Predict the 3D structure of the following.
Amino acid sequence: MKKIIAVLSLLFMGFCGYSQELKPEMVPQKILDRFHHTFPQSVDLPVSWVKEKGDYKATLTIMESPAIMVIDSLGKTKRIERKINEIYLPKNAKDYLKNLDSNYQVITVTKIVDEKDKVTYNTTAKIKTNFTFDDKGKISNPK
């Protein structure tokens, strides 16, 4: 029983070491400055801070949509994630989904901007696609 408790204690300490919740006053000023520069409205909003692998991760809600910003220890932005409305999804992405299923339904769209300002969209959509297979399992009529 003591071994089990010892192992569980070590696992718990390992998880705590991986991700550590911080109070705002524990976040270095240069990190806060970078964050407030990117999200000026955050001065009036609750923000939760976590330190993961040396990076600072801020989570907040803006206009009922979650946003995350990851900043390295030098104050450089590594990633910004924001839930956005599907109307902001690029036309080519919508066309792709429509090609899969003309009645597709977007559930969530997250816009991700990385440290090199490369934009990607993580999209979850409900798609119904029908496939017809022959008796050998080979697709014979996609869609």
The radius of gyration is 22 Å. Residues 2-18 form the longest helix (17 residues).
